[in-house]
Amino acid sequence: MKTNISNQIETWVNDQLDLYNYALQIGDAHWQQHILETLSNKDAYLQELFKEQENQRLWGQFNEINQSMLQLLEEIRTQSLDREQLEAIRTKLSELKKRRLVIVQKINAVKVTPSSN
């Protein structure tokens, strides 16, 4: 995953430098200055990439938990279970709900902001 972010940041920097060179060729000093300011915010851009990656990872976990819960609920609905089996499934569901709540809290803490680039 770090390689993916490294590639993204390298591409972003190269794109900005290409834009800068073009602005230089056409003599647009204001645009050149804007691009230099954008490049100086590379760390903020990199931080947003890491946040986005973490957000995607957390949503993946959230979806996996939901799938597990649906499978357990389907098992309750379609199979004849004795009291012990039913209680074991309910315990698993309770654990999954707790894990899902922790993930939701982490998702809310990450808060990816929309990129203007």
Distance between the termini: 21 Å
Low-confidence stretches: none
The helical percent reads: over 70%
Helix-strand pattern: HHHH
User: What would you report as the Rg, rounded to the nearest angstrom?
Assistant: 24 Å
Number of helices: 4
Mean pLDDT metric: 90
Largest sheet: none
Structural class of the secondary structure composition? mainly alpha
Please count the beta strands (DSSP E, at least 2 residues each).
Answer: 0
What form results from the Cα inertia axes? Answer: rod-shaped
The proportion of strand residues reads: under 5%
If you had to describe this structure to a student in words, what would you say it looks like?
This protein is an all-alpha fold and 117 residues long. Helices cover 87% and strands 0% of the residues. The protein has four helices and no strands. It has helices spanning 2-26, 29-40, 42-78, 83-110. Helix 1 (2-26) packs antiparallel against helix 2, helix 1 (2-26) runs antiparallel to helix 3 (42-78) and helix 3 (42-78) packs antiparallel against helix 4. The longest helix is centred in the middle third of the chain and has 37 residues, at 42-78. It is rod-shaped.
Summarize the helices and strands and which ones pair or pack:
Blueprint: H1 2-26, H2 29-40, H3 42-78, H4 83-110
Helix pairs in contact: 1-2, 1-3, 3-4
